[in-house]
Amino acid sequence: MKKKYRMTLTMRILLLVFVPLWALSGASIGIGTHYMAEQQTRKLKDDIKLIARAIRVPIGEAINQGDLATVRRTLDAVFSLGQVYGASVYNEDGQRIAAAGIAGQEDSTDNPLAEQLVRVGQDGDAYQHQAGRRVFSHFVPVTDETGKISSMVEVTRRASDFSATMDRIIFWAWGCWGVVGLLTLGIVLLGYRQAVGRQVANLTNVMADVGRGQLGVRAPQSGATELGTIAEAFNQMLDDIEQAQQAIAAHRQQEATLNQQLERQERMAALGRLVSGIAHELGAPLNVIDGRARRLSRHHQQESAQHELSAIRGQVKRLTRIVHQLLDFSRSGAQREAIELRESVQAAVDSIKHELASVPPKITVDIPPEVSVTVDPARFELLLVNLLRNACQAAVSQVGVSYQSDADSWSLSVWDDGAGIDAELDPQRLLEPFFTTKPKGQGTGLGLAIVHNIVSDHHGELRLSHAQTGGLQVSLRFPEEVKA
């Protein structure tokens, strides 16, 4: 397809603005010089008329007296003025009787025009040729004492006198017009470059950068108001595109997060079903082993036998606790009722005291006694037990439980002064089932996973952070509707 030619903005400005103005100025100069030429010609003709009328009286008197010498002297005096190119006197028959200047160089002794004007008896003028040169002649009739026309005076001037001065004026006028036009052209181009061209170039460069994918660039909004408005609109378009891309990226991120959550929930559901089945299958054999070990301990009183049987029962209890955790992990749903939060926390503290070391950490509970919340009591107590057990195992000397509330939610935080978690470890990994940072054989990795499931069933949020005391802080936030 043939590319269509399009004029640049510079060419449009020159054709639509500069050229019409330049042509208008040229027309003005043409009209002005023509008017000046008319005025100059009229002035020169009037000068000739004044001279001719000034000499006709003395010439008429001299002719009436028959004094041709005086007539010639008068004509010579007129010719000496410099403005007159020639002068002649004709009798009533149109024959030249005296001449001066160029008129004296002619061979002809009569002038048909003079003869005609003598018969008419009026002034007249005309362009004619004398001695091979073009001249302008003005004729004035001369009368005698009776008022009869006795002769005709002719005063001539070179025709070039009428055009020489105007030719110079016209030459300089059109020359100045051309010079001013070139200067105006330069000013227009320079002004366009400063006022429009530079900003248009900047906009073009910005558009080229955007075309190459650099959406962070912005067009400068300085300069002419119209171009500034275009730059502002272009920048707004880029801002809208950037916001749209951010919204799309956020939507994709949210979609990816939801997909990950859905995939995790599907894995957790499948894992929960598997764990529930395994826990039920292990529960009965463990009860049988514990019962038989208890019966054997009554029949064998030897110290060695009692020690071995006690070790077997201890391991069975540990396996039983793991089975209970697995069953708690696989449970879902919540049957809520109002409970006293401080009493529930204290009951969880009492249930883990037998698990603590000989020098247990100090547990501080900062919860007002009148606070009541609506939760699933059994599962919420299991949540508290797992949090307090982990905190006490990690603490050096202090464990704290604190409560806060606002207009639409309430929160519970459990913290310790232990070593905390490794800075390179993603805290979210602690919520994965069977992931633990404890030494092998000391943890199942189900504690925080159970807590996270219970919090999710209560439509709450769980957040892990560094405590001010240096250890780990677990913050639980529940919406207002689960608060009594």
Automatic annotation (TrEMBL):
Keyword vocabulary terms for this entry: ATP-binding, Coiled coil, Kinase, Membrane, Nucleotide-binding, Phosphoprotein, Transferase, Transmembrane, Transmembrane helix, Two-component regulatory system
Which residues are in the Histidine kinase domain?
277-482
**Where do the HAMP domain residues begin and end?**
194-246
Supply the enzyme class, top level: transferase
GO: which molecular function terms? Answer: ATP binding; phosphorelay sensor kinase activity
A GO cellular component annotation in the UniProt record: membrane
Q: Which InterPro entries match?
A: HAMP_dom, HATPase_dom, His_kinase_dom, HisK_dim/P_dom
Coiled coil segments of this chain: 234-268
Protein name listed in UniProt: histidine kinase
Q: Which organism is it from?
A: Vibrio ostreae
